[in-house]
Amino acid sequence: MKSSLEFYGDMPLPVRVITPARLAALRERAGLSKAELARRIGVSTRMVFFYEEGRHTPTPQRLQKMATALHCDVEELTGVRRGEERLVDLRFAAGLTLDRAVELLRRTAIGRELGLSAPRLSALEQGRPVLGRNWRDRDSVGRLPAALAKIYGVPARIVVDAWMRTRPDESAPVRPRHRPQRDSSGSANAAWQSLNERQQVYLGEVLRDERMTETEMWMRRTHHLPVPHPAEWRKLPLALDAPAHVVGYTRLQERLRRRGVHDPGAGATVHALARRGLLVTNTDVVHHHEAGEVTRVRVEMTRLGRAVARAGLGEHTEQQPDMPLLSEWLWGVMTRVAEAGPDGLERDALSGRAPFYLGVGYKNRSAGRPSRGFIDEVPVPAADGSHVIGYRWKLTPIGIRHAAEYLTEYRRRYPQVDTTGIPNLAEEPP
């Protein structure tokens, strides 16, 4: 592990403040004068001047007001990218002063048990030793991330990640609970077996088309194109109510035709799957350049239908991972990047949603899951250093630490994920 951490570089400084030049640029982008920004955040114009000169730093509450006034995220002001947050960044993003955070924590049982105070929380955020008898109790300290997550309004796993960035020389504060995994695939398998062969093909092809559409939506995001809400794009076009020689076939119809099971229109097979609660159908009206206004039939998978299709296709149904573990799918992505070693993984080798959940700097929808910051796109310079010839995915320092801390648990839970080809994870930390 030591050589891996040395390769990926040192951790950044623990405390973040606004970057004066960035503040000035964001204010100008928003079209605000210093006086107008001062009025909106409740300070004097002179104080805004001090902020932009780097002579003062706004309080968390004023930082939140500033971000609102400038129509940006707090991260844009502090320069902290998604997936690089430390404990102090989470508190500032929540708009909490040190004293207010301590006041809220003291209302919790663990806050009182640990004797939370401003000096102790400050020491925690600065990566310094926190004094106190209960602070040497691993079980007690391990309950604090959940309390911090509640007052900061983020998932507990994000607090654990920020904790490990803040205190890189310590073990992770939380160990996953050892609980038996419930096998929920039995009923899904039974439902799959109750379908006839035609219905099985239909359900499987709808699942594959949904995944293809999901990848297309991800590509649109990466190219900064508008993306419909999932509730809309998950309704997959199945058929147009017009002669096929005029309007052709939808992509889903073409898939079914290649399998030799295509029904005209919605068809009896789709209706049978809908009666079982595996699919939902609906119609709308679209314009076709030759046929004019035509009725379109769309089909959407239900959660049950997705589980049944996955079981029938032999795919493992993922359990909700214990905090702070990754799902089997994301752990598999991590191992692929780790296996690539110092050279990194080709940028195009990762597709779908993985970068939004694991990549530094990625921003999902506002209410979506925050990025863990375990992988990053690292530029590859030309031989003469004159320009960048491409990018590769590499593990970040926190990604390496997370994998090493929880490697044994991952191997126990996801034995089908091969970790033998990643030598930088073969040795766990003491």
The radius of gyration over CA amounts to 26 Å
Number of strands: 6
Instruction: Enumerate the strands of the largest sheet in spatial order, edge to edge or round the barrel.
Output: 1-3-2
Order of helices and strands: HHHHHHHHHHHHHHHHEHHHEEHHEHEEHH
How confident overall, as mean pLDDT?
Answer: 83
Proportion of residues in helical segments: 40-55%
Q: What's the end-to-end separation, in Å?
A: 10 Å
Residue stretches low in confidence (pLDDT < 50, at least 5 long) are 1-16, 426-430
Judged by helices, strands and strand pairing, the structural class is mainly alpha
Helix tally?
24
- Report the major sheet: 3 strands, antiparallel
Proportion of residues in extended strands = 5-15%
C-alpha geometry:
globular
Topology (elements, then pairings):
Elements: H1 2-8, H2 20-29, H3 34-41, H4 45-53, H5 60-69, H6 74-78, H7 87-93, H8 98-105, H9 109-113, H10 118-126, H11 138-141, H12 144-152, H13 156-166, H14 185-193, H15 197-222, H16 230-233, E1 236-240, H17 244-247, H18 251-259, H19 267-275, E2 279-288, E3 292-301, H20 303-312, H21 328-339, E4 345-346, H22 354-358, E5 375-381, E6 388-395, H23 397-405, H24 407-413
Antiparallel strand pairs: 1-3, 2-3, 4-6, 5-6
Helix pairs in contact: 3-4, 12-13, 14-20, 15-18, 15-19, 15-20
Pfam families: HTH_3 (PF01381)
Region (Disordered): 169-191
Keywords: DNA-binding
Summarize the structure.
This protein is mainly alpha-helical. Helices cover 48% and strands 10% of the residues.
